[in-house]
Amino acid sequence: MSTLSAKNPFSELFSYRQLLVSLVWRDLRVRYKQSLLGMAWAVLLPMSMMLIFTFVFTRAVKVADGLDISMPYPLFAYTGLVPWTFFSASLIGSVNSLVANRNLVTKVYFPREVFPLSSIGSAFADFCIAGSVLVGLVAYFHFTTSWTFELTPAIAFVPVIVAVQIIFAAGLGMLLSMANLFYRDVRQLLGVGMQLWMFLTCVVYPIHNDGSWWGVIAMCNPMTPIIKGYRQCLLEGTLPSGGAFLAACATALAVFALGWWSFRKMSYKFAECI
Amino acid sequence: MAASVSFQGVGKRFRRGAVHESLRDLLALAARRITGRKSRTSRQTFWALRNLDFEVAPGEALGIIGPNGAGKSTALKLLARILRPDEGSIQVKGRLAALIEVNAGMHGDLTGLENIFLTGAIMGMNRAEIKSKLDAIIEFSGIEKFIDTPVKRYSTGMQARLGFSTAAHVSPDVLLVDEVLSVGDVAFRHRCEERMREMVDAGVALIFVTHNLEQMRSICHRTLVLDGGEPTFVGSPTDAVGHYLKATMNRIGELSYVDNPRSEHTDGEVLGMTFLAADGSEVECVCPTEPLTMRMSFMLKRDVQRLTVETAIRRDGGEMMVSLNSRHQGITFQAKAGRHDVSIDLPSFPLGGGNYFAIVRLWDADRSELLAETPYKFMLQVDDRGKGTGLLSLPHEWSALKTVEPVVQAVRTAHPTEVIADTGVAAHDVNKGLVQPSP
Lengths: 274, 439
Description:
Largest sheet of chain A: none
Distance between the termini of chain B: 46 Å
CATH superfamily of the largest domain in chain B: P-loop containing nucleotide triphosphate hydrolases
Order of helices and strands of chain A: HHHHHHHHHHHH
CATH class of the largest domain in chain B: Alpha Beta
Largest interface: A-B, 31 and 38 residues
Shape of chain B: globular
Number of helices of chain A: 12
CATH architecture of the largest domain in chain B: 3-Layer(aba) Sandwich
Distance between the termini of chain A: 31 Å
Oligomer: heterodimer
Strand content of chain B: 25-35%
Radius of gyration of chain B: 29 Å
Structural class of chain B: alpha/beta
Mean pLDDT of chain A: 88
Number of strands of chain B: 19
Strand content of chain A: under 5%
Helix content of chain A: over 70%
Number of domains of chain B: 2
Radius of gyration of chain A: 20 Å
Number of strands of chain A: 0
């Protein structure tokens, strides 16, 4: 006899994997239905951001040359913006996922983790599409500029970085979606918060720990070694530098554990509070 | 056999009043706590459901009825694990499917077909399972032609049909149904009832919450009445409906006496109505074939030259069954102020099994003035011994069997399809109308 007491959370969530796939697929279908460009938007958004920042840093304020980067600035910006877009889309999607699926939360039972996770899933699909365009960009700069690309084994480490980022986003996403359920202010705050966070991360410019308070904050931010890691593995042929990246992994796991534990603990209240 | 569903002393408490929904409210609350001022939003709680005990065996259909706010939906949500009980325990054996708003997961921008896959996944089916049942689902819904149209262009009824069709093919061990059948046309509702009966016969434990008492009675074996969050009755559907309606009618009665300004300055008062069997004993339950006397007692405050008395009877579902008015028989009574009795003798009471509720009205025929009126509160139960004859229990007799033409045995050896072909044009045309051309 199965009772209503909590089952093993991993196996329960695993048994709902097809629902997760279905919800991700629903999000994607709905997002790109009745849109002329469809999936191209996944590429156009980070691409246009890259063009904007390239214009700002190389034409408007002309600081790109002094940025101390080992690659053309557009490549630097794109390899920062694509994972960052994935991260911020994950959180912004998650934060509203429970409230937006109010119908399901109050009418049907399944593990509620599925909602923030499906938001991350659909952001991941966009990330993959936008990421594949990188091949073209790399080729363009390889053949037209003095910069050259070398394929190294370090590229095999990219999935690990992606996994760390997903774990971090999932933990935060669960915490945020839950908080937004009780206080809708969270969603508004997150919009501003993500802007600030982006500039505390080496997305469009490199950040070095120069010992100042600003440098310390930026280096404690787990997204800094993660974004930096993508560039190192993909374009510089080196593995992410030890300490900072390991600290980011530990933070990601801790946030995920805290997020999932509290999410499960609170989830029975969701239908009443929504 | 072990029960599929068991509720033991289940209770669910809710908070009255709004929960603070923005951070501003929380800050205000915190400030009040610090300054020691009492919060205006009271933290009172109330029990939406309490002391609920019941079991449902595999292959059994349990109905839950009760007035609005009685806790019916709360009970289903507890069962569906959407809410968690504050006391007691709930056990469910096997896979559970809840038809609580079957359209909850649908998305208007997706086509009917895409929504079948989505709804199916939400209800716990895997892709292979949905694929194997797809044809059956589409056929059941009866919207083959629009299956590739976005659901936002569907009518409400079509959306409900699509949702129910998917849910009806989940093959659960426990099925919860909450009022979803109220949409959809008569034919589809009928098909849903059939499907529910089929599932129950196949061993599914069904829990059915509804306000449609007739439908509930035709499907359920046992019925639970909830009122004010507590179970007030469990028993046969007919008895439960009687119990529920009696409580409801009494409540309406109390209300209408307070609210109805007509009753304040009328010159009559109905004291009661009793039902008497042939031997003169008072009864609450009758057999449709036996004679019945309906006796009404009333009080008049003034003399009435031409009094007419009327009684009307409604069935539990609300259908008006019959109205008996003395004036229609050309009868008026001359009555002085005081207490009076008047009776109607019926050779039989040919109505189907169920609960009936009667009213009494007194009229002054000369002035066309209503002297007194009661709500539908006098209850009489008709026991048709479970024959289920419908609304009526018509007195009738069957003739003896007469063989008009004996059939020659040899004809039956022919193959059935050949027989249809042999019957010629008429049968062929009938088929044309029924069979959908396959794509």
